[in-house]
Each structure stands twice: as structure tokens, then as C-alpha cells.
Amino acid sequence: MFVRFSLPVILLLFALAALQFSSAVSAQDGESFLERAIPLAQKSQRETAVPASVTLAQAIWETGRGASPIGEANNYFGIKAAAFSDDTVNVGPLATGWVWAWTKEWNGSRLVDKRERFRAYKSMEDSFRDHGLLLATNARYSDAMRAVDDPREFARRLAAAGYATSPTYARDLIRVMDGENLYRYDLPRNAFEVIEQAPTLEVNAGEIFQIYFDVKNTGFGTWSPAAEYYLVSANDNRFGAPARIELDQLVPPERVKRWALTMFAPSRDGTYSTVWQMKHGNQNVGEPLRAQVRVRALPLPQVWLWLGGTCLVAVLAVIATLFFGYVRYQKKTLRSLHV
Fold it and tell me: In terms of residue numbers, what domain contains 278?
């Protein structure tokens, strides 16, 4: 049995199939865009502290999820090029030029079409980086930069500063961030990765030794002594090391800090664990840092040798003290006789 379809029905079926295929391709392109955008937004956050969630929401909103970065301009944030009275055009530090494009602007009562100059970039990466630098260095957005720990508030202040003319711009960005949970891509202010640390050490009782932890700043904040970053002992086995060690240098994101601790092995043999915690003020930064130390008991002859050496040093110190005391006494006596 054959079913006959009229030409209009066949055309309708083809149209529906094409629409379904187009939707699938569009969704795939959108996911591909997000996969490329996430690491760029996080890199920008490390460099400038602009929340990755806000950067992603702006790129999604301004380009229709990457579909229209102003033609071939690779401009994912609608950043304009400023024209001056002498006919020169400021395209910023990273753009390669500018293009004309039509956009919609709010004139106070409605959206109107307007032709504007927009920055053009060599790559998507340059566009993302220029966006972060613009927000972080332009005084116009300084109020927003004081809210980098709160993406929603950042979006509100960004809109209030006039990033876009749309009166609903903040709500639009927040709706995108909430709907796609873009906050999961935000970097923590304080985080680290252990790059290397001292291996398990075997030392003799009473021996001086050193352990270290190389930690990479993987957050978006710079560690600094003025901001009260420090390392503190988290158990009783600090073996003569200070209980608290202050940070002594600036550690920007992606840089490595070595915490080095000099210790004295205890007199009793055994395996010990020394635990340290990095802190920012009263807040813990990352997981505790742990190192193992195996202490060997000294053989009996070495014990006597060590005790003898210790006693000898003590005796010599006493003799030296008495000698120099006697010399001072003699000098004082001679001066009194001359008087």
C-alpha cells in the first residue's frame, strides 16, 4: 500500500526536517562556543579579577551565544572604537582596527537603530582579554571592580556605569548567569595547587633538616604580605620551626611560592607527620600541607659522642664566660688603683 502526499505536504515535511537540523546544529555550535569561551573567561579573571560568569554572560548575550561577534570582527562584547575630533580612532591596546556595524541603542524611550564603530580583533582570545582589561583599568567601572566577589552585584554596577544603554541589561545578564549556572566557572579568590614538596626525609635524632612546599596560586587574587597571607602549624610536630611564618613576597595568579621550613629532629626515633595550613586572615587557603619525617635513633657510640660534644661545648662556654668576666674584673681593678 502506498501513501501519496501532495506537494505542499512534502514541502512542509522538508521544512520541518530542515528546522530540526538547524536547531541541532545551532545547539551544537552554542556548546562549542561555551567550551572555547570558558577557559578564556577564567584566564581573564586571573589577570583582571573580572568574574568569569559575568564575562561569559556578556559574550552569550552580546553575540547570541557566539553566533554573531559583529561579522568578522571577533568582537564578543560589543566594545566600541572611540573617534576623536582629529579623525583618529582609539581601538585600545589589543584590537587590530575597527569596523562599522549597525546596533540598537536605547534613546530613553525606545530602541533605535544606530551605526557605530566597533573594535576588530585578530582572535576570540584578544577580544576576551581586551574586555577584562577595559573593565579593570577604566575608572568608569571602578565601582563594579569593588564587587568582584559577587557576580550579580558586579553585573548591576556594570550596567549602572553605562556599559550598555539597555535599561534591562543587568537583569538580562543575571538571567543568563542564573539560567545556565555560569557561577560554577568562577575561580575562587584563594586557591593553590601543590607543584612539588619535600619527599619523606630520613634524618638522625638531633639533626637539622629542611622541608618545603611549592604551591601555585590558582585563584584570581594576588597573595601579598599586606593582605595577611601566612603559613601556620596545624599540629604539634613543628620541630622548632616558628608556629607562624609570614608571606614575604607578592604571589600573583599562576605564580609559585616556596614555603621552606628549617627544623630540628626530635631525640626519639619514629615516623612523624608535620602539618601546615596556609591562611588569609582567619580563612584557610586550600587543604593542609603534610610532610613525613623518619627519625633514626643514633647508634650508642654516636649518642655518647653527641652527648660528649654537647657537654664539651657547654664546658667551653662556661670557661669562656668566666675568663672574660675575670678580664673585665682585672681591668676595673687596675682603673681603680690608678685613680
Answer: 192-296
For residues 32 and 159, membership in a common domain is answered with: yes
Residue 206 and residue 164 share a domain: no
Helix H, strand E, coil C: the string for the chain is CCCCCCHHHHHHHHHHHHHHHHHHHHHHHHHHHHHHHHHHHHHHHHHHCCCHHHHHHHHHHHHCCCCCCCCCCCCCCCCECEECCCCCEECCCCCCEEEEEEEEEECCCCEEEEEEEEEECCCHHHHHHHHHHHHHHCHHHHHHHCCCCCHHHHHHHHHHCCCCCCCCHHHHHHHHHHHHCHHHHCCCCCCEEEEEECCCEEEECCCEEEEEEEEEECCCCCECHHHCEEEEECCCCCCCCCCEEECCCCECCCCEEEEEEEEECCCCCEEEEEEEEEEECCEEEEEEEEEEEEEECCCHHHHHHHHHHHHHHHHHHHHHHHHHHHHHHHHHHHHHHHC
pLDDT at 28 over 90: no
pLDDT digit string (tens) for 289-329? 999 999 998 775 555 565 666 777 777 878 878 877 777 76
- Kindly report the CATH number assigned to the domain that includes residue 231: 2.60.40.10
Q: Is 0.85 topped by the overall pTM?
A: no
Q: Is residue 35 part of a domain?
A: yes
